[in-house]
Sequence to fold (218 residues):
Amino acid sequence: MIERAVGNDQMIHRTIHGAVIAGMFAALAMLLCAQSIPVSAASDKIPPMESYEIPIVGGKGGVGFDDMGYSTDLARVMAPAGRIGAIALIDPFTLKFNWFSGFTRSLKPGIGHDDSVTSASTGPGFMLATDRTARRLYVVNLRTGKIENYAPLAGGPDYVRYVAPTQEAWVTEPEDSRIEVFSLSRHTPPVATHSRFIEVPGGPESLMINVAEKRAYA
Fold:
């Protein structure tokens, strides 16, 4: 895993968490033994998880999901629906949803995630979305649901994340072993402008921004 300080371009370093994870399991085992609770008995107390199916209109033949996340700005789960060319916004309590559309559509059947919009992230009053087919970073108005503007991407995108402390959009481009950074204007919605690249040897996979710790994980 690559760990990077947000707003600091001086260092990228790899961290190995195997020892930490092993330590956590060891601590858990010691706790269970100290309380004389068999591991099997502890696991038996965990209630089974419920599962739901949410049919996606137009998804026959495969959608091509990849990234999915929760937006506190919308109080909705964001599920970019790949080749359908739209982002499903799902209420996690009612399971009802609406759409942000207008992205590239693909008539090619299949369940791969190489087409159209596959990642999204929100900020105050706006949504960022990457379109793999068009190779664009779109800026969507949260109030109207309409695409306001876009910026061309220098490479094939994977994940996009809003970085609030620096007012930026970070887009992973794993095939080029880098993250493309866009500065965002103070308008609402903002205008995205290419700023720089962050080189990530071996290519970044996924992307998480931890504002409290001032770190980005990829």
User: Anything to note?
Assistant: DSSP finds two helices and 16 strands in the chain. The first strand starts at residue 2 and ends at 5. Confidence is low (pLDDT under 50) at residues 1-37, 39-43. The radius of gyration is 20 Å.
